[in-house]
Structures are given as C-alpha cells and as structure tokens.
Write a structure and sequence with these properties.
This protein has about 210 residues and is an all-alpha fold. Helix content is about 70%, strand content about 0%. It is built from eight helices and no strands. The chain is globular and about 50 Å long.
Length: about 210
Amino acid sequence: MPAPVPFEIGPILPWLDLFGIAVFAATGALAAARREQTFVTLAFFALITGVGGGTIRDLLIGAPVFWVHDTRVAALCLAMAVALWFTPHRWWTSEVFDWLDAAGLAAYAAFGAAKALGYGIAPVPAIVMGVLTACAGGIIRDTLAGEPSILMRPELYVTAAALASALHVGLSLAGFPPLAAGLIAAAGGFALRGAAIHWKLGLPAYRG
C-alpha cells in the first residue's frame, strides 16, 4: 500500500504528464523514422520512450504502473507514431527533435517529482524520481537506436531535469499550489535546456 499522500497532485499536473508522454513518444517515433523503419518499429519506439521513465518511477515508489491502468497513454503513444508516419520527413529536423525533447523533459520531470511527493516519498528521493522520469525514456530510446546516450555528452540535459524536479519539490514544500509549482518548475527546466540548446552550454568534462 502507498504511504499517506501529503501533497495533492491537483487537476492540472496530470496534463503535464500527458504532454511529456506525447512529446517523448514523438521523439521515439522520430528516432525510428530517421532510420527508415517500419510502422511497427515506430510504434514500439514511441511507446517505450513515452512510458519508460514513468514505468521505472512507479515501480520504485510503489505506485500502480500508470499506463497499464490508463488506456489513454498507450493510445496517445500510438497516435504520435501515426502522426509521424503520415507527415513529411522534412518537418522533423534535428532542431525540432531537440526542442520537443526539451519540452517533454521539463514537463515530465515536474510531474515525476509531484507524483513521488504524492506517494509520500521524501524530498530528495522525490527529486531523483523526477529526474529518472524525465531521462530514462530518452536513454532507452538512444540505446535502442544505437546512438550515444545523452548521459555521455556534456550538454545540460540531466541538469535541466534536476532543476525542474527540484523547483517543484521546493515550491511544494514552500506551500505553492500544485498548478503554480508545476508550471514554474516546468518553465524553469525548459528555459535551462533551451538555453543549452541555443548557446551550446555544457558542463566541464573530466580532464584527469
């Protein structure tokens, strides 16, 4: 049984979750489309990328795995695969991919932290759950696509997810309403990731 719920997720934050799922599903389908794969592969990539991080989060916090109990989620992932299948390839440039990924990252991190808090997880592990929610699906996508994981590049990616997650936890502890905390957190994470994309910002690499 889950622990008592000390924080309300609120009526709006689940929409951040669905938005993050849709965007990550699109990036998964796009990764397969770039390699000229079949629709079945696009659909698989969309699903595994869309639900990967949230599935791991739910298993760790003792929650029912969300997409197994919410029929909208798998349908949403498949709808994104269909959308990618029937739209011109020229619409989905690397820049579009990066910005979609940034939006999904920020939204998913905020919701992941909110859900962890809602299941009674302490603040620091809740922040980690937000980061895991946001990053694990993309890591799975890159691994299956045979691309270097974002973790192996110095870009501000996990850092942006950590910012969104920590902002949500901090604002929730400060008494902000769930809607305000979620939107501010997602906006902060997106702004940092967007700045990293635009100005090529990264963390210093280990030099020995």
